[in-house]
Write a structure and sequence with these properties.
Blueprint lengths: L4 E6 L13 E6 L14 E4 L7 H4 L6 E4 L9 H6 L3 E3 L6 H19 L7 E5 L3 H12 L3 E5 L1 H5 L8 H4 L4 E4 L17 H5 L6 E4 L8 H9 L3 E4 L10 H6 L2 E2 L8 H19 L25 H8 L2 H9 L6 H13 L10
Parallel strand pairs: 1-2, 1-3, 3-4, 4-5, 6-7, 6-8, 8-9, 9-10, 10-11
Length: about 350
């Protein structure tokens, strides 16, 4: 077989050799290290969220397909890609189970640290799509009172959603929206000074969506006044505000969706789109490594949260994240990236 295609990929994308590597010359690099000169003769770029893909990166290259093994595409200049005739795809929903399960574990740990009963809190969801919808199911299965806000879904005819002001009165609020700067419902700095002014300080804010859905300055001011936060994503990543990190009830390094299951699912989704775009016969999509047969899990069983907290080791990840506080500010961004790059992948619970 002649390897005619040239493919550049983020080295952290799962199963590269068994998928994209079947069809051409594969070069794997660190996501933040991918530059224009690496792509001059490339036909395809396979990336993750840490690579900004825009005119500056791709103009003048041969790239005709961009795939990001992530649920979001806010790091892609999709308008420019469309105008340049470059096909692009993301992997929405690939790690929804992982993120929903990890968010529940983070919430549970935060409640334990605060000495409050997680089952007795009124829980508000902002965004009820792939992740938020799964989290709502988990919370309701535990008997937790949940309300949700999702204007885009409501505009499509879905019912049962509440206004944002009602969500802001909840005991806990979890954010599950994409990061968008335009359109009818932009989410960049959705939680800004105005929203935080309407949010009571005892509220626990949970964020495992995108860091810049929240205005960092407003978040820091709210936390200084007693606001509570469990954060997996951070305003201005990878540059982490040490004050926000120190005050967070739970702090983890943007790894809520980092399960082996989610990564393999993302690779398979992008690989299928890659083959379709370039007219290739796809090989077998990557298969997950075998694992011991898991126990029969019932979310209503008293032992369920024990299994979840073992599968989603939030306390371990929180300890790792707080090591950044001892690192000089100039080195903190690289250390944050290293926590993500070297994260020991976990498996989703089969729920």
């Amino acid at each position: 077989m002649t390897l005619a295609l040239k493919i550049v990929a983020d080295e952290r994308v799962a199963a590269l050799d068994s998928t994209f590597g079947r069809h051409g010359e594969l070069t794997a690099r660190g996501g933040r290290d991918i530059r224009h000169d690496h792509l001059i003769d490339a036909d395809a770029l396979i990336t993750r969220t840490v690579t900004r893909v825009d005119r500056q990166l791709l103009e003048g290259t041969k790239v005709r397909f961009v795939g990001t093994a992530s649920i979001g595409s806010d790091h892609l200049d999709t308008a420019w890609l469309d105008g340049a005739g470059i096909r692009w795809t993301a992997a929405p929903g690939c790690n929804a189970d992982a993120t929903a399960q990890y968010t529940l574990a983070s919430y549970w740990l935060a409640c334990r640290r605060l000495g409050i009963d997680p089952l007795a809190q009124r829980f508000g969801l902002v965004g009820c799509g792939n992740v938020g919808g799964r989290l709502r199911h988990l919370l309701q299965s535990l008997g937790i009172d949940v309300i949700a806000n999702d204007p885009p879904l409501e505009a499509q005819g879905a019912t049962g959603f509440r206004a944002l002001d009602e969500i802001l009165s909840c005991d806990a609020i979890s954010l599950h929206v994409p990061l968008t700067r335009s359109g009818r419902w932009p989410t960049w700095h959705l939680f800004d000074l105005d929203v935080f002014a309407r949010l009571s300080t005892p509220t626990l804010l949970v964020n495992a969506s995108r860091g810049d859905v929240v205005d960092g300055a407003a978040l820091g001011d709210w936390m200084a006044r007693g606001g509570l936060a469990a954060l997996d994503v951070w305003p201005g990543e990878p540059h982490i505000d040490a004050v926000i990190l120190e005050k967070a009830v739970v702090a983890t390094p943007h790894i809520a969706g980092y399960s082996l299951d989610g990564k393999y699912r993302a690779s398979a989704m992008v690989y299928r789109a890659f083959c379709e775009c370039l007219g290739l016969e796809p090989g077998l999509t990557p298969e997950l490594p075998a694992r011991p047969v898991p126990p029969d899990l019932n979310i209503r069983d008293p032992s369920f949260m024990k299994h979840l907290l073992k599968a989603c080791p939030v306390e371990r990840d929180d300890d790792a994240m707080r090591t950044l506080l001892a690192i000089p500010p100039a080195e903190r961004a690289a250390a944050f990236d290293a926590l993500r790059s070297n994260y020991p992948l976990r498996r989703d619970l089969p729920l």
